[in-house]
User: Fold these one by one.
Assistant:
Number 1:
Amino acid sequence: MPGILVYASIVCDAVSMPTREILGAARGVAAKTGEPVSAALLGSGISSLTQDLIEAGADSVHVCDNEKLWEFHANAYLKVLADIAASVNPRMIIFPGEAAAIELAPRLAHRLKGGLITDCIGFEVREDAVIFTKPVYGSKALARMRVDGPTALVTVRPRTQEPFGPDQNRKGDVVTVETALGDIAPETRTVERVEEEVFECILEEANVVVSGGRGMKDPESFQQLRELATLLNGAMGATRVAVDQGMVPPSCQIGLTGKIVAPEVYFAVGISGASQHIAGMSGSKYIVAINSDPDAPIFSISNVGVVEDYRNVMPTLIDELRKALA
Amino acid sequence: MHIVVCTKQIVDPEIPSGEFKVDFEAKRAVPDQGEPVLNPYDENAIEVALQLKDRDKDIKVTVLTMGGESSQKVLRRALAMGCDEAIWLKDPSFEALDSAGTAAVIAKAIRQAGNVDIVLCGRQAGDWDMGQVGALLAEELQTACIPMAYNIEKKENALFVKRETENGMAVLEAGLPLVANITNSSTNQPRYPSVKGVLMAGRKKIPTFSAGDLSIDAEIPKRVVVEELTLPSYDRQVLFIDGEDGPEKAVNLAAHLIKMNLIK
Ligand SMILES: Cc1cc2nc3c(=O)[nH]c(=O)nc-3n(C[C@H](O)[C@H](O)[C@H](O)COP(=O)(O)OP(=O)(O)OC[C@H]3O[C@@H](n4cnc5c(N)ncnc54)[C@H](O)[C@@H]3O)c2cc1C
C-alpha cells in the first residue's frame, strides 16, 4: 500500500503548528484512500514527541534521534530523510511551509527524482492522482497541479489546513531509524546569530496585527503602529516595501515571502493591498484598512475602511481605544 | 572569482488582481500585459553580486537567463546594472519547463561555463512562485546551498553569508563553490543602471546556447503538470467609515470596532 510521509518540524521543543496542520491534511487524504500516514521525526532529544505525532494523526513515526541532528544541517537531514523515504516508499511526502522544510523539500525531491509543488493550499483526491491547489502569479491566480511520476512532494502554506485531533486514544508504531551520520560534514558553519527582540507577542500567534506599508514613510511613524499593537496585546507587521526601505526589520514582513498570519483583527495602514501581501493575511477574521487612496485594492478585501491620511487618524484612534479599554 | 546570477523575465508582478489576465487555454498569464520585468528577487541577487564586485574588481559577474525572444531584455538590464557578461539559454525545448527541468538545463550551462565559484538565484520568481531552482542547482552541482541570504562578503578564500532566520539573522561561513538564494533586504536594493551602463550593455554581444550547444540529447524531465488555472474570488464587502475629517473618522472607527466586540 503506498503511503503518505509527513515531515515533522519542531519549534520550541514541541511539534509545530504547521506540522499539525499537514498531519490534518494527510488524514483527510487517507480518509479517502485508506493509506497509512507516517511521520519523519529528526533531531536530538526528540524521542518523547513520537506520541504527540501519533495523537496528531500519524499511524507510525520514523524517528532518528541523534546528537548530530541537534543543529539543523541540510546534508545530515537529507541523508536521514532519504533513508526513511526508501523504507516507507511513500507516493506523497508533505512538508510544512517552514524555513528548514522549504530548504529540504527541493533537495529531497532531486534525490528521489520526484516532483515538488511548493506552497500548496488544497488537496483533492482523484482516482489516479492527488490534485494540489497552489496560488501562482503572486496569488492572483490558482493553479491545480499534479505530479507525474511515483513520488509527489509538496510544501503546504501554514494556516490553510485544519489540524487533526489531538486524539489521546490513537495508537501507532514507532520505528527507530539508524542512519550512519559519521561521515557527514556540515556544509556551512554558523559564526554569528542575532535574534531580534520580540516587543509584543509572536507575530504568527497574535490575535491582533497592526501592519504598515510604504505609506508610512519612515521608521518613526511605525512607532504609532507599535503603540496600537501594544495597546491591543498584538504584534506589528509590515509589507515588503517597508522592509526594503529599512523602516522595520525583515522579521515583520507579512505575505507570500514573509509570515502568514490570520489574526482576529488585522489593521492595514498605508498598504495598497498587493496580491503578494494579501497572500499572507487574507485569512484574518476582520480586516481594517486605512489608506488615503479610495481606489486602493486593499479595500476590496477589507471589512471596514477609512479613506484618509493615516496621520490624521492614528492619534485619535489610539486615544479612543485606550479610553474604551481603561 | 566568477559569479553566475540566474535570472528570469516575468509578467509584472505589480499588476493589480482586478486587471490581471489569464490565458485559461494555455494555463498561464497572458504574456503581453504590461511591460515584462526582471524578477524582483533576481534584481536583489544581481545587487549582491555587484556589491562583491564593487569591493574586488577581479570578480567577474555573469548574468544567465533561460527563455524566449523577449528575455533578452532582462539580460540587457543586468548588463546595464554592471554585470560583465551574459548567457542566454534559448531553445524551443526549454519552453514551459518545470523547476526540475529548468535546474537541469541551467546546471548543464554552468558546468559548461566552467570555474563558476558562486551561483546566485532570487529566492523565487514572481510568476509561478515555486522557489526551487536554487536548491535544485545545489543538488545538480553538488554544492552547499544557503537560502534566505541577503549579503555576501569574501575574505581570502572563505565566504561570509548573512541570511535571514525566523526571528533575526545569522552569519554563515561557507567554502566555494556555493549556491545561495537571495531574499530582499534594505541592504540589497537594486541599483539603477547608469547611462554609461545602458550604452555599454547595448553594445555587448550576448551568446546564446541551444539544447545542442549544451549537449542535451535526451528529453528534459517534466514532473509537475498544470491541470487548470483559475482566478480566486474574495467575498468581503467593505464598509467605509464616514466623518468630516480624520479625527472624526477615527472616533467613528473606534466606536465601530468596539460595537463589533473586536477590542479586548
Ligand atoms: C515574488 C514576490 C514576492 C513578494 N512578497 C511580498 C510579501 O511577502 N509581502 C509584501 O508585503 N509584499 C511582497 N511583494 C511585493 C508586493 O508586490 C508589493 O510591492 C508590496 O506589497 C507593496 O507594499 P505597500 O503596500 O507597502 O506599498 P505600495 O503598493 O506603494 O502602497 C502604499 C499605499 O500607501 C498609501 N498611502 C500613501 N501615503 C499614505 C498616507 N499618508 N496615509 C494613508 N495611506 C497612504 C497609498 O495610497 C498606497 O496605497 C512581493 C513581490 C514579489 C514579486
Note: Chain B touches chain A through 89 residues (CB under 8 Å).
Number 2:
Amino acid sequence: MEQLFWLPIHADLGKAIGEARQETDPAKCLNALANLAGYRRDFTLTNRLDRTAGKLIADLVAKDACKTAGLTPLRVAILSSHTVDHLLPALRVAGLHRRLAISVHVASYGMYRQALLMEDPEMAAFAPQLVVLALDARDAPLQLPLESAEEDVAAAVQDKVAELRKLWFAAKKRYAAQVVQQTLVPLDSPVFGSFEALVPAAPYAVIERLNTAIREAARQDGVLLLDLAWQAAQGCYGKGVGDPVRWHQAKQLVSPHLAPLYGDQLARVAAAAAGLSRKCLVLDLDNTLWGGVIGDDGVEGIYLGPGTPSGEAFLAFQQYVTLLAKRGIILAVCSKNDMAVADAAFKHPDMLLKRADIAAFVANWEDKASNLRRIALMLDIGLDSLVFVDDNPAERDIVRRELPEVEVPELPEDVSDYPACLAAAGYFETISFTSDDAARSRSYASNAERKASLSQTADIEGYLRGLDMTLTATLVGPAELPRTTQLINKTNQFNLTTKRYSEAEVARLAEDPSALVLAVRLRDKFGDNGLISVVLARPDASVEPDELLIDSWLMSCRVLGRQVEQAVLEVVVARAAEAGWSALVGEYRPTARNSMVAEHYARLGFVNRSAPKGAESNSVFWRYNLGAAPNGTHFIKVENP
Amino acid sequence: MNEQEVLSALEPIFRDMFDDDGIDLTADTTAEDIDGWDSLAHVSLIVAAEQRFGVKFLTAELDSLHDVGHFAQLISKKLNG
C-alpha cells in the first residue's frame, strides 16, 4: 500500500511548492504550504516543503508570532537510540498541515538517559512540551540466554520497564512535558519459527513481552504511545521500518522513503496532545452509506445488509462508523437529496446507523461546501474539526478547493476498503477515552437542532470552470437505445414527467423525423460520466402546430448542480429552431419524488402557459419562445454533431 | 541507459536534494564539491536514486559509493544487467 494513500494526488506538487515559495508574505506562504502538505508526497517533496516551511516556522516561533499565522507552537524533544534527523522534515510538514508549528530538539545520539536524568542545559533551554522516547529493539537488549526460565525473562522485562518509568517520571518532573513512548519494532529474525513465542527468551517473544509491559505501564502513568510495533505489524511500513541496509549504513530505524508516514503518525499524536484532532465525521449518503441512489432506486432498491457482497460491505462500513460514534466522534450527513427521501432511507431494515445518531443532517440540492459550513455552525465547531467522506471525486474536489480546512480522504474505489482508509488516515487520534466521550455525539445531536442555519455561496463558478466539462448531444440511434431506455425507466428525481417507455417505443420515436430524441453525454476532468440525460420532444395535437412539446426531460443525479440543464436547453433550442419550430412547450408532472424539478422550466426562462386539452390535472405547463434570449449561463463546452 | 544518461537523470535529484539549481554533475563530482552533502544527505541521495531508477544497492556496494561517476556507473550497470 502506498504511504499516505488517503491523501489526494496533486497534479504537479513540485511546481505548486515552487510557486508557494515565491510568496513573500510569511503567513500566506505558510498557509499555502500547509495546504500542499495535505497532498500525497514522497520524502523528496516533503523535504522540499520543509526547506521553506521549517525556516518560516522557526522565524514565527522566534518572534512568538505563531498565533498570527493561525498556528499552535509545540516544542518536541526527540530522544532516540537510532538516527532520526532524516525524519524531522516529515514531522514538521505533517504538523504544519495540522496547524502546528513544531520546533524539534534532538538529543545527542543514544544519550536519551542523560538528557532526562542529568542536567542538560540545551534541553532546559528548549523546554520541551512533548518528549518522544524513540527507542528500538537493539538498544540495551536484555541479553538473556535462550534457555532462560520464564520468571527470569519476566523479571528482566520488569526491570527494563521500571527504567523507562524513571525516564518518564524525569521528563514530567524536570520539564513538565507530555511523554510519548515509541514501542519496539523487532529487528532480528526469529530463530524458532512458529515455536518462537513458546520460548520465553527467544527474540520475538522478548520484544512482544516488552511491548505489552510498556503499554500497560504507559496506561498507568498517563504516557502516550507511538505504537510503531503495532503499525509495523499492520504492514503499513513494509520493509521501511527495520530495513537492515539502512540500519547498517546509518543506524536508521525508519527508512528515509517512509519518513512521510512516520512523520504523519507522530504529528497526529502531537496534534491530539495539542487538542487539534478532528471531531466530526460528515458522511455522504448514496454510494457512501449504501449502494445505489435512494431517490431513484427507492428504499427497497438500495444495496445494504446481508445477501449481496456490496450490501455486506456497506453494512460493515456503517458498523465502523457506529463504533467511531461510540468513541465520541460526532456524525453528520451532507447529501444531495430531498430531505424526505434521505430520511426514508433510515427506515431500511438493515440500516445500522440511526437517524438519532446523526447530530446534523443536511439533505438538499445546494453545493456541499455551503452545507459543510452550515453543519459546522449547527454543531458550533470549526471547519477544521470536520472530516468529509464522499464517494464522488468531483464533490471531494470542490470541497477541498472551497474549504481547505476540511479533511477529505481520497476514498478507495471499493467500499470494502473504506474502514481501513479512515483508520489509516488517523484523523481522530486521541489522548484519552472516557465515558463522557461515549455520550458526546448524542448531546451534539440535540444542540444542533437549535442552531440557526446559514447559507454562504461558495465560489461555484470557479469550480464549474475548473471541471472542464464537455457535453455531447446526439440523436438517439441503435447504440444509445439500451442506456437511453434504462435511464428513462430508472430516473425518478430529475424527471419532469416520469413517463416510462419501452425500447421499441423509444426506437419508433427516434425514427420519426418530426421528433427530437436526444441522448446527452458529459465528460469532465475526472472522466466520462457516460449518457446522463435524455430529452424526448415531439409535435402533439394538443398544442399549437408550431409548438414542439417536450414529452420527457430527465437527468442522472450524478451531474446535478453543474448547469447541464442550461447546456441541454441550448442544444434543444438550436435543433428545434433549425427544424422550423417557433416555441417549446414544457410540462412538469409532479410525483412523490420529483419536487426538485418543480421550478426547472422557470429557472430556464420558460413562462407559464395554459394547460392543453386532455392534460393531467396537476401538471403545470411552460412555454419558451425560440427567439428568446437564453436565461442563465453555464461553463460547459457543447458538442452538437 | 548509459552512464552519461544516468548522470543527466541524477542531476535533478541532486538539485532538488540540495535546493540548488546551479549544480552541474560530472563523473568527478564528490561530496567535497557540493555544499550540504553530508552523511544524512548521502543516505537520502541513495534512497532517492533507488526510487528514481527502480534499483536497489547492495550493502557492499555502499562501501565505496563516494563520487557521482561511480554512482552513475553502478546504476547504469544495474539497469542494463
Note: The longest helix of chain A spans residues 150-175.
